Amino acid sequence: MLDTKPLLLNSDFPAINRGALSVLQVNLGYLCNLSCTHCHVNAGPKRTELASLETINAILAYIDLTGVTTLDLTGGAPEMNPHFKYLVREASARNVTVIDRCNLTILNEPGYEDLAEFLAQHQVVVSASLPCYSEKNVNEQRGKGVFGSSITALQKLNKLGYGTSENLSLNLVYNPNGPFLPPSQQALQQDYKQKLAQDFGIRFNELLTITNMPISRFGSMLLSKGLYEDYLQLLKDNFSAANLAGVMCKNLISIDWQGFVYDCDFNQMLDMPLQTHSAGAKGMIASDAQRTHISDLLQQDITGNPIVIGDHCYGCTAGQGSSCGGALA
């Protein structure tokens, strides 16, 4: 796989600093039942990296100390981690809002037949990847048969009250199927709701549009097709300074399957660890500094610290902006 990281580090992206922490985003491992073309994690069925129980308990200790209010679980397919249910139970018992970044098809896999009911029981927010309401586009991006399986899973969630009950939120996630920016989130959400209700009787709460980052599997595709420079220029040409105040790294930290900490999920995939010391006025553009473990943060306050940046950060600030919670504008 071609590596875009060396091309991203010498960046002119504006310096930004952390605000108050409220969200822990935890990557529970790279094991996944799918291998999507847009995946910035390069996850798949042959990956073996999975968070240990020791790491998960360190995360719970940090939640106890800081009073973090949201736990955002991702992967891979986070549900394939053998300690997924334990973490959800423990976080829910602490009145923490749990988000499951679900690929939907996992709900239909053998051994996971009770997963949807478990999520509903603990009122887990489901953020489900569905890059289009078109079968052709979804199968091109995520694999043959994925669209049909996703629809079946959404109908299963609807029957449990997801998308209709006040306490069971179901959000869908859109990624572009190519080197272009997402369309208007509001307009696309209206199209999704109309088409999915009309064709399949499916209801959901919100659509979240997320810009593809020029890293990992998607970045490799851009390089192999000679599209990297054009795509990065597209991101820069559509930079909006107004989005800087809302970027997710200001109130979120990303934790990898080993417990090491990053400013965001994208920095995690680029191995650009969170820094706990002061930086100059131009911000931090780093990749080789010593990594910080979540257990090391028990004695530190990272509020106000500089965020490690690179050219990929333009992906979060281009156009309507992009975060794990969808558009910023």
TrEMBL record:
Q: Which SUPFAM superfamilies match?
A: Radical SAM enzymes
Could you tell me which InterPro entries the record lists for this protein? Aldolase_TIM, ArsS-like_C, rSAM, rSAM_ArsS-like, rSAM_sf
Could you list this entry's UniProt keywords, alphabetically sorted: Iron, Iron-sulfur, Metal-binding, S-adenosyl-L-methionine
| Cofactor field | [4Fe-4S] cluster
Name of protein: Arsenosugar biosynthesis radical SAM protein ArsS
Where do the Radical SAM core domain residues begin and end?
Answer: 27-164
> Membrane-spanning regions, if any?
none
Q: Which Pfam families match?
A: DUF3641, Radical_SAM
Q: Which residues form the Arsenosugar biosynthesis radical SAM protein ArsS-like C-terminal domain?
A: 181-327
Q: Which GO terms describe its molecular function?
A: catalytic activity; iron-sulfur cluster binding; metal ion binding
Record-linked CDD domains = Radical_SAM
